[in-house]
Amino acid sequence: MSDIAEKKPTTASSSTQHKKDEIDLKGGPFSVLQTAMESRTQVIVRCRFDKMLIGYVRAFDKHFNLLLTQVQEVSNADESETKHRTFNSVVLRGDSVVYVLKLQQTP
Q: Ranges for the Sm domain (predicted)?
């Protein structure tokens, strides 16, 4: 019984935990956001509830929370009517993101 009391709980080292928290920016879905941010290329973000945002990525995190600037929102609330709005900046919660497309840069 004394053996159980003497054992200390094991914890992950800080370097192991840090590796788990890192985002792979060289490949995978985060590479699209990283290259769009570095090259200042517009992205299309498809959101839930038939909304689409077009803007520039300024920041993001591992949960796909996005900070977009110079944003145009296109909303298809009704099948017959499309609404357009413009924002200087938008903070978008990651669970609203369906997909992200990087637009081609114009020469």
A: 30-106
Whole-number Å distance between alpha carbons of 55 and 80: 25
- What are the C-alpha distances in Å from 105 to residues 35, 36, 43, 95? 12, 10, 10, 27
Q: Could you give the domains of the chain?
A: 23-102 (2.30.30.100)
Read off the amino acid at residue 41. Answer: T
Given strand 97-102, what is the order of strands in its sheet?
A: 83-92, 66-75, 51-60, 42-47, 97-102
Q: CB of 56 within 8 A of CB of 69?
A: yes
- Whole-structure pTM value: 0.74
Contact present, 98 and 29 (Cβ < 8 Å): no
Closest CA to 63 of 23, 19, 90, 32: 23
